[in-house]
Structures are given as C-alpha cells and as structure tokens.
Specification:
Largest sheet of chain A: 9 strands, mixed
Number of domains of chain A: 2
Oligomer: homodimer
CATH architecture of the largest domain in chain A: Alpha-Beta Barrel
Largest interface: A-B, 70 and 72 residues
Number of helices of chain A: 14
CATH superfamily of the largest domain in chain A: Metal-dependent hydrolases
Structural class of chain A: alpha/beta
Shape of chain A: globular
Chain lengths: ~450, ~450
C-alpha cells in the first residue's frame, strides 16, 4: 500500500476548529481543538489550550472537523445509469437493465461518470472510495484529477456481451498490469482486484484471482452473499456457503473485502472473523434492491472489521455516505428491535475508522501520522442545536446532521472542497457529459 | 376544518417551472409546466405549452415544483431535547430522560422550541405538520408567526409530575377551549385532540376524548401499537389489541389518526381499513428507538390512508421529512426482501397526498382548488443527473435528492423560504433561545 505523501502541499497548516471529533474508538472530542497538517499527514491533534506554537498558515474551522468518510464499496461511474431499471430485483436489474448498457460503455464514458461521482462524493465529505468497474485506467485518471483517494479494484466478470468482453483471464492479466502501472499514483491510488462474485465466475477464476491478490499483497474485493438466491444457488452447486467455498479454494488467504455479506450463517460470520475478512456493509443498496438486512451487530460482536459502502449510484441512488452512516444503525436497531445494540460513536466509526481499516489505508482517525483526510462540518444549523456535552455532538453528527453541512474537505492535506463547493472537479461540465452519454447509452439499447 | 384563504397574498402568481411534479396517484409530470396561484389556492396546473394567458407576477422555478411535504406526527418543540437520552429504549427514554425535563417546560420554552422546529421544517419543504405537545397556545403562536400550516392536537396525558400536571379531564377541557379559540387561525391552524396512548391513559379518558373529537368533528391522534411491550401490556389488561380496544370504546367512531402503528395483527389492519383510521408512519423514529418496522405494504394494500411522520426531534433526531420519504420504501423493501413492493411514485405520495388526506387538509397534490402549498426543488445537482424521462425525476426525488435542494417554499401562496433561506423565522435567534433553554432544563434535572 503506497504512502500518501506525494504531490501534497508543503508547509505546516493548522485547522483551528470549534471541535475536533477524532473518530477514535472512545469517541474523543477536543472542544475547541487543533489539527496540524504537514506534508499530507497529520502531525498534531489536541485541545487548543495546549496546542504547540505554530508559525504556518491557520485555517479557521468554526464548526467541527472530523476524519474524511470512507466509501468501501462503489461503482461510481454508474452515475451514468442513475435511475435505470427502477424497482427490479437484483438479478433482473443486472441482466435486463444494467449489463446491456454497460456493454456500450467507452473509457471516456467511465472517465466522466467517475468524475461526476468524485465531485458528488468529495462534496459529501467522502475522501476515499473503493471502486470496482471496467475501463479502470479511466477510473484512475478521474480520481487523480479530482484529488480523491481511491482503491481501484478492476472488475473481473465473465458474461458474454458485457464489459470489455475479454473473458476473465484477460481481465485478470489487465488488472495485474494496472497494479504495476498505477498503484501508488499521485499518492492517492491503490490497485486491488475485483472478481465480481462466486455466482458469476467459475471456481478457476476465483482461485486465480486469490492467487494474484496474494502475489501482489493487495486487496481482493468480491460481492458476497448479497441475495438469498445467490446463497441458494451456491449451496446447490457446491453444498457449501459462499464464504466456505472461498475459504476452501484459498481465496480467504488473500486480504479480502467482502461486499454486502447479507446472508450469512453463524459459521460464516465466525469464518470471516477468523480469516480476517473485512466487510463492506451497504445497507441502502441492500434495502432498495430488496436484498435484505445484513447482520451488522453480529459481525461487529464477532470482531469483523466493517466499513460502509454506497454501492453504485444506479442502486442507491446517490454516493452520499452520510446516509449509510445513519441507515446502518437504524436498520441494526430495527432488526434487533433494540435501541441499545449500536450507538452513535460505533456508527460513526464504521464510516471512518472501520472503512479505512477495511481498505488498508492509513486514515479514518485524526491522529498524528495519519493521512490528512479531514472534513470541516458547519454546526451553525438547527440540526446541531442544542449542544450541552460532547456526546451531543456525536449524536447530532450521526442522527441529525447531513452531508450538505460539509463546508471544507482536505485529501492528503490538499483542499478539494471550499465553502461547500468542490473546487477540484468541474461538476457542471461533468453533469453535462453524463447527461449526453446516458442518452447515447439509452439509445444504443433502444430505450 | 378551516379553509386556508385568510391572510394570503392577493393577485395571481405564476410559477413557471422546469417540471411540475403534480403528486397525483399516476405520477403525472408536466415538463415544463406552470402552477398558477390566487388567493392562497392553486387555480391552474398544466404544461407551459397550453398555459392560459397570464397578467400577474411570474416566478421562474428552473428546477421542479411539487406539493409541500406533510409531517403527520411531530412533537417539534422537542428541538429543546434533541439528543437527550441517546440509546435508551422508548419506555426508559420517556420515564428517565424526557418526562422529567418536560415537567420544567414553560410556554416560552415551547414557543421557541416550536419556532426552531418550524424553521427547520419549512427549510426542508415541510409545509404542514401535526403537533402533539403541551402549552398548545404557544405552539399555535409559533406556527402562525412562522407562516406554517399545522394541525395542533393538544397532548392529553395523565402522569404525575409531567406536563402541565393537571390530570386528563382538565387537559381535555383545555383542548376543547383551544379548539373554540384557535381552530382556523390565520387560515393555517386546525385544532384536534392528542390523547397520548392506550397504555398511558385510563379507558375513561380515551372514551371521553373520542366523544369530544366527534362533537367537534375534528381529528383525534393517538400513539398506537408503537412497541411490542405496549401491545403485551394491553393484551394482558384487556385481552384485546389496542385497535380492538379503541373500537370497543367508540374512539374509532371519531376521525382517528393512529401514530406509529407498528405492532398490528392482520385483524387490526382490517379494522383500521374498515373504520377509516389513517396511519402516521414514523419509520425513522421506530428504527432509532428499536420499536420495530411497521407493516407499510400491508396497510397500503388494505386501503389504509398512510402519511409519514418524523416524530419528535428527540427521537429521530431531526424534522427532515425527506428522510422518511426515502426510509419508508427502503424499510418496506428490506422487510419484504422484495424491491417490487413499493415504487418511487407511491413513496412520494405518502409524504404528500397521503399525509394531507390523513390530516384532512386540502393540499398534497398540485391541482386547481387545492391550497397553494408548493415547494421548488433545485435540480442543477449531480443527484438529478441524468434525466432521460419523467420517471427519472420521480426516482431522483425519492432515491437521490435531499432536503437541502429545496430552494423556495410557499404556504397558502405566501413565500416562506427563498433561495434556500427560511424568511419567516429568525432561525439564529431561535437556535440561541433553544440552546439557553435546553441548558436550563438540564440544570433543573441535575444533569
């Protein structure tokens, strides 16, 4: 995994904040506090009262600063397909609405779809995402131009007439080449592998992907137990659950990030914990597509590292991880019919610390040595009234604030959102491009 | 129910919109379209191409216009208690955190809490709410000053040391007096009754409330089957479910709005449909407090009128009904593990048409003769890209847009939000008041 130190502004900068929400496991907050940044990393965090002498630039952050949000499962170029195939269940949605259009995608389409996605995510305070799609060089180019941190995991899928259509061997080779070429680019990009799922790839392909991920010491992300029907299909073919199959063929020997992980048995959860498989929990996508409600509390109690994911904007339908940050604990409490199963501090940790751990990046907490991925949130809003104690700030962040209160965002110390406007992406041009390209895709499939 | 025609601007105004989302059951949209307003009511809606000649003022609405959202269950003065008692289940949360503080509330506290709540709701495009609380004259004053439409249903509760503490008879009498005094005020206020719940009031009180509601021909709203324990308690005492008990004692002969309605049997649902009881579905509050997931799809299929409610900002923790508009179909789909059980048009109808029907107000649809409660939403945002067909607009409204895109709001033809700022409420002063008063309440209970 590359360090995040290249191409970052030099010179020490101090964020002088009304409150510093560190994002650590204890929910520590400094009111008021400072975050000092140098060379793309955080060098000091603490209360204003005992801040070290400072000679560089100071940026006033009258609200609160917090770690950037981490989106652990996205297909963000699918901004091109936002709203397509509304109301279809996952299997039919993929086969009848999504894959036919994706067969017509060009690298330029993916570049603009990803660029619009980066603009949307950065504006919402999402500083890192994990992206599984096609035409991955275009994804890399888009995130580097946008100044966003990204784990790019090229999609590997073997369905005739979809994607680049080269078969899984060629796609796996290409992913290896992309790793050689782009891993570490601009201090922002990491390259992993994204074999689609156990129900869309032969065992041979899954095995080969696991082997390559181990060779490259990189993260392999895979859709896992997303729907009940997927689970039934695997049980029928292999007489075992998806996690058990992946373990059997050596995939879990790699650094694995399992996306969705909805339909898990107790034994599956124990296996994920034992093999240190992280989970990208995608509550909104799972609910919207009727896939189900994942066993979040059980996963956390078993010690599994859990991050949050939006999934693609065609199944969510936005990239605003703030919604997942709230929906994850809401669904967990509704599922358990118990308000005490998860609190605001734990929920916040999923979107920050948990996500960073799941992607193997050195962010997710405001602490010395970590990457300077920082978000400044306005608190001069009714949603943040009243504040009588630190705990109120955490409650308001999770239960009543929203992404539109994000004022400023830094990725690796470089400011990419200022006063609520994304300064690193021309969102208007990206929206124009996506609108025109979406119309072309619709025409290509005769809609 | 009063007409909404008093105190409204005169002279015909045309909203010339990029799109008019009428909110009717068919999901009709005019792109581009016009909405003509006169005397607080809508007088014409249709496509721009066949709009009648117009000589009054024209307001350009380059995004889309839609009916104002209707919040069918709120305790909005509880902005004063936002964040209090985090993580407690409903019963302990009420008894240990909320009710002790409420015993110290003054009418001025309630005025400022409600004022902040009005500012928050109007800013989110919520043009009407149903409010059950104490010190109801202060609630009326606040909504009239804010220019918001409101069904005020004085809370009737009989717990020593809580609320005004006068016992249910005196509270019921006071509610009747408020009806005589304030029903119809400013063309904005209606007055109903708000007996708290079957588990907090004796049968005699429930019966008397039902009788008074029938005499006044007004709406009676009651917390119904919110938690499993409430249901168990009633079953033990009366050997029947809450709806069956309320029917038995004549309460369902009134115009009843049942709040929450989570724990219902099939027979309960059939009874609610038969007795034309409307439901205020509060998915976020129910999830956050671990109360459960209501049977939304079953209620709709039985023909029950369903609106959405935020519940109080101490159990949600905001008054942004846009979140309920999205969460209701998400939870319904997750519960059914089926994406086809509810679509975007139906979900949108809950927050608008369904809510207006539940409160008995002549709004919720943009159509001639209806009250001119209209919201203009910006669509120049990545969340609204791409739009290839009318259906995309509905999908984006429900699945990817959010309240911060609300640009302008009219209530009864009077503009109360302009360019994203609530012009009828001094939100800064209200926030200052709520902060100070919340601190006083915390001190009063020794926290």
């Amino acid at each position: 995994m590359p360090a995040g130190d290249e191409g970052c502004p030099t010179g020490r900068t101090r964020l002088a904040a009304g409150a510093v929400v560190t994002g650590d496991a204890a929910g520590s907050i400094w009111r008021p506090g400072v975050v000092d940044i140098d060379g793309g990393r955080i060098v000091h965090v603490g209360p204003s009262s005992s801040a070290p002498e400072h000679h560089g630039r100071t940026v006033a952050c009258p609200g609160l600063v917090m770690p950037g949000l981490v989106n652990t499962h996205g297909h963000s170029p699918m901004t091109l397909l936002r709203g397509v195939g509304e109301g279809l269940p996952l299997d039919r949605w993929l086969r009848h609405a999504i894959w036919p259009r994706e067969a017509h995608l060009t690298p330029e389409d993916v570049f603009w779809g990803m660029t619009l996605g980066c603009g949307e995510m950065l504006r919402c305070g999402v500083t890192t995402s994990c992206e599984t799609y096609f035409h991955d060089t275009a994804v890399v180019d888009a995130v580097v131009e946008a100044g966003m941190r990204c784990l790019v995991t090229p999609g590997i899928l073997d369905i005739p007439g979809t994607g680049p259509g080269r078969g899984w061997r060629a796609m796996l080779d290409a992913a290896g080449e992309l790793h050689a070429e782009a891993d570490g680019r601009a201090g922002l990009v990491s390259v992993g592998l994204g074999p689609h799922a156990a129900y869309t790839l032969p065992v041979e392909a899954l095995t080969a992907a696991g082997r390559l991920a181990r060779e490259l010491d990189t993260i392999l992300t895979i859709h896992l137990a997303e729907t009940a029907s997927e689970d039934h299909q695997l049980q029928a073919e292999h007489s075992m659950t998806v996690p058990a199959l992946l373990d059997e063929i050596g995939v879990l020997d790699a650094r694995v990030l399992a996306a969705h992980a909805v339909w898990l048995t107790d034994a599956d959860i124990a296996l994920l914990a034992e093999r240190r498989v992280a989970v990208a929990h995608c509550p909104q996508s799972n609910a919207k597509l009727g896939s189900g409600i994942a066993r979040l509390v059980d996963l956390l109690q078993a010690g599994v590292t859990v991050g949050l994911g939006t999934d693609g904007p065609a199944s969510n339908n936005d990239l605003d991880l703030w919604e997942e940050l709230r929906l994850a604990p809401l669904l967990a409490r509704a599922r358990a019919a118990d308000a005490s199963v998860i609190d605001a501090v734990s929920a916040f940790g999923l979107a920050t610390r948990g996500g960073a751990a799941a992607l193997g990046i050195d962010a997710g907490v405001l602490a010395p040595g970590r990457l300077a991925d920082v978000v400044h949130v306005r608190t001069d809003d009714p949603r943040f009234v009243p504040v009588l104690a630190d705990a109120d700030l955490m409650a308001h962040l999770v239960w009543s604030s929203a992404s539109h209160l994000v004022a400023d965002v830094w990725v690796g110390g470089r400011q990419v959102v200022a006063a609520g406007v994304c300064t690193s992406v021309d969102t208007v041009e990206a929206a124009r491009q996506v609108q025109a390209r979406a119309a072309r895709l619709a025409a290509a499939v005769g809609r």
